[in-house]
Design a protein that fits this description.
The chain has 114 residues and is mostly helical. The chain has one domain. Helix content is 55%, strand content 9%. The longest helix is centred in the N-terminal third of the chain and has 19 residues.
Length: 114
Protein backbone atom coordinates (compact mmCIF):
# COMPACT_ATOMS: atom_id res chain seq x y z
CA UNK A 1 0.00 0.00 0.00
CA UNK A 2 2.85 2.38 0.81
CA UNK A 3 4.45 1.64 -2.56
CA UNK A 4 1.24 2.49 -4.41
CA UNK A 5 0.89 5.74 -2.51
CA UNK A 6 4.56 6.56 -3.06
CA UNK A 7 4.18 5.86 -6.79
CA UNK A 8 1.26 8.22 -7.08
CA UNK A 9 3.07 10.95 -5.15
CA UNK A 10 6.23 10.57 -7.25
CA UNK A 11 4.30 10.72 -10.51
CA UNK A 12 2.39 13.79 -9.36
CA UNK A 13 5.63 15.43 -8.21
CA UNK A 14 7.33 14.78 -11.54
CA UNK A 15 4.33 16.21 -13.38
CA UNK A 16 4.27 19.34 -11.20
CA UNK A 17 8.02 19.76 -11.48
CA UNK A 18 7.82 19.91 -15.28
CA UNK A 19 4.79 22.23 -15.22
CA UNK A 20 6.45 24.78 -12.93
CA UNK A 21 9.82 24.76 -14.68
CA UNK A 22 10.23 28.05 -16.64
CA UNK A 23 12.26 26.24 -19.28
CA UNK A 24 9.39 23.79 -19.71
CA UNK A 25 7.12 26.59 -20.88
CA UNK A 26 8.98 26.86 -24.19
CA UNK A 27 7.68 25.70 -27.54
CA UNK A 28 9.84 22.55 -27.62
CA UNK A 29 8.12 21.22 -24.49
CA UNK A 30 4.73 22.08 -25.95
CA UNK A 31 5.63 19.95 -28.97
CA UNK A 32 6.79 17.10 -26.74
CA UNK A 33 3.56 16.99 -24.78
CA UNK A 34 1.30 17.07 -27.83
CA UNK A 35 3.36 14.60 -29.82
CA UNK A 36 2.06 11.03 -29.90
CA UNK A 37 4.03 8.80 -27.48
CA UNK A 38 4.81 6.27 -30.22
CA UNK A 39 6.51 9.01 -32.24
CA UNK A 40 8.95 9.81 -29.45
CA UNK A 41 12.16 7.86 -29.08
CA UNK A 42 12.65 5.63 -26.06
CA UNK A 43 15.50 7.85 -24.87
CA UNK A 44 13.31 10.94 -25.16
CA UNK A 45 10.47 9.32 -23.23
CA UNK A 46 12.90 8.13 -20.55
CA UNK A 47 14.21 11.70 -20.26
CA UNK A 48 10.72 13.14 -19.86
CA UNK A 49 9.00 10.42 -17.80
CA UNK A 50 12.03 9.27 -15.78
CA UNK A 51 11.04 5.62 -15.21
CA UNK A 52 14.45 4.83 -13.67
CA UNK A 53 13.86 7.47 -10.99
CA UNK A 54 10.40 6.10 -10.25
CA UNK A 55 11.76 2.57 -9.90
CA UNK A 56 14.68 3.80 -7.77
CA UNK A 57 12.29 5.63 -5.43
CA UNK A 58 10.39 2.38 -5.03
CA UNK A 59 13.54 0.59 -3.91
CA UNK A 60 14.72 -0.92 -7.24
CA UNK A 61 13.76 -4.46 -6.15
CA UNK A 62 10.15 -4.71 -7.21
CA UNK A 63 9.97 -8.51 -7.43
CA UNK A 64 6.74 -9.69 -5.86
CA UNK A 65 5.30 -6.19 -5.42
CA UNK A 66 1.96 -5.33 -7.01
CA UNK A 67 1.79 -1.81 -8.41
CA UNK A 68 -1.14 0.00 -10.02
CA UNK A 69 -0.16 2.06 -13.06
CA UNK A 70 -2.89 4.69 -13.10
CA UNK A 71 -3.59 6.24 -16.50
CA UNK A 72 -1.24 3.72 -18.10
CA UNK A 73 -1.86 5.16 -21.58
CA UNK A 74 0.17 2.94 -23.94
CA UNK A 75 1.79 0.93 -21.14
CA UNK A 76 5.25 2.46 -21.41
CA UNK A 77 5.79 2.70 -17.65
CA UNK A 78 3.80 -0.51 -17.13
CA UNK A 79 6.36 -2.53 -19.07
CA UNK A 80 9.28 -0.74 -17.39
CA UNK A 81 7.85 -1.81 -14.02
CA UNK A 82 7.30 -5.36 -15.27
CA UNK A 83 10.91 -5.53 -16.43
CA UNK A 84 11.92 -4.47 -12.91
CA UNK A 85 10.06 -7.50 -11.54
CA UNK A 86 6.79 -5.96 -10.36
CA UNK A 87 3.30 -7.32 -10.84
CA UNK A 88 1.50 -4.42 -12.51
CA UNK A 89 -2.16 -3.55 -12.83
CA UNK A 90 -2.40 -1.17 -15.80
CA UNK A 91 -5.45 1.06 -15.52
CA UNK A 92 -6.75 2.86 -18.61
CA UNK A 93 -10.15 4.33 -19.44
CA UNK A 94 -9.89 3.72 -23.17
CA UNK A 95 -10.71 0.30 -24.60
CA UNK A 96 -8.36 0.80 -27.55
CA UNK A 97 -5.42 1.53 -25.25
CA UNK A 98 -6.27 -1.54 -23.17
CA UNK A 99 -6.28 -3.64 -26.36
CA UNK A 100 -2.93 -2.16 -27.39
CA UNK A 101 -1.38 -3.05 -24.02
CA UNK A 102 -2.84 -6.56 -24.30
CA UNK A 103 -1.40 -6.93 -27.83
CA UNK A 104 2.02 -5.74 -26.66
CA UNK A 105 1.84 -8.17 -23.73
CA UNK A 106 1.12 -11.06 -26.11
CA UNK A 107 3.87 -9.97 -28.50
CA UNK A 108 6.34 -9.98 -25.60
CA UNK A 109 5.00 -13.35 -24.36
CA UNK A 110 4.05 -12.07 -20.92
CA UNK A 111 1.56 -14.88 -20.37
CA UNK A 112 1.08 -14.20 -16.66
CA UNK A 113 0.00 -10.57 -17.05
CA UNK A 114 -3.74 -10.05 -16.66
Amino acid sequence: MRILLLSIIVLEFLGCKNASDPAAAGSSTQTETTQAPAAQSTAERDRIQKPEEIIALMGNKLTGMTIADLFADDGYITFKLLNAGANVIAIVNDAEKAKAIEARKKAMDWAMIV
